[in-house]
Design goal:
alpha/beta, three-stranded mixed beta sheet, single chain, 210 residues, eight-stranded mixed beta sheet, BirA Bifunctional Protein, domain 2, 23% helix
Length: 210
């Protein structure tokens, strides 16, 4: 297990998306060559949409914000202030976890365990990527998104948890191609959590799961 040396980095303010992708590419190359440790990088982005490798043009309803081709799996998603993004760069080969499905399931478990610390019950659904919860009207709504890429068993991209983003910004897209369910946030569920509190829990739960 390589996890003892996994580095954690938290970027203050809003990290431009292109900068994040180029820094990830650089770190992934470093992990593959053995010159840099694994990294979990926590950021917030300015308001933008990203298109995954299976994005459907019809799901982009309105370009309210810049759209970036992301190279990760999945479809359209929104990133913006108030959303905690964790970019996870791990060497699955060194960790003996050469199973992408298992890795995705571990990311989901990490989100579920972290949200549970704040009293939020969340779950996954067959055939629907991401982590879901029940909103006030007891409808299922998405609270966290996942989109990953794996290169030679090194992972990048990662997860996004809605803490208190402007949920109306999702109106420009069909999030992850799923039109029939809404999106929610910790704030909308009435849970007041600071990024610092969430970060501390994410780190604690990450160590348990990975």
């Amino acid at each position: 297990m390589a996890h003892k040396n996994t580095e954690w980095k938290i970027s203050e303010g809003l990290t431009p998306y292109e900068m994040a992708v180029s820094e990830m590419e650089e770190r992934v190359a470093g992990i593959m060559s053995g010159s840099t440790p694994e990294l979990v990088w926590l950021v917030e982005h300015p308001a933008l949409y990203t298109a995954g490798t299976s994005a459907n043009d019809d799901d982009l309803i309105n370009t309210l914000f810049p759209v970036h081709e992301s190279g990760r799996g999945g479809q359209y998603t929104y990133h913006g202030p108030g959303q905690r993004i964790a970019y996870v760069m791990l060497d699955l080969k060194k960790r003996g976890m050469m199973d992408v499905r298992r890795y995705v399931a571990s990311l989901e478990q990490w989100i579920i365990a972290s949200l549970a610390e704040f009293g939020v019950k969340s779950f996954t659904r067959e055939g629907r990527v991401g982590v879901w919860t029940l909103d006030a009207s007891v409808e299922e709504a998405k609270i966290a998104a996942l989109g990953i890429r794996v290169r030679k068993w090194v992972t990048y991209h990662g997860i996004a948890i809605n803490v208190n983003p402007n949920l109306s910004h999702y109106a420009g897209i069909v999030p992850c191609g799923i039109a029939e369910y809404g999106v929610t946030s910790l704030e909308k569920l009435g849970v007041k959590v600071s990024m610092q509190e969430l970060d501390a829990v994410l780190k604690k739960e990450f160590v348990k799961i990975f």
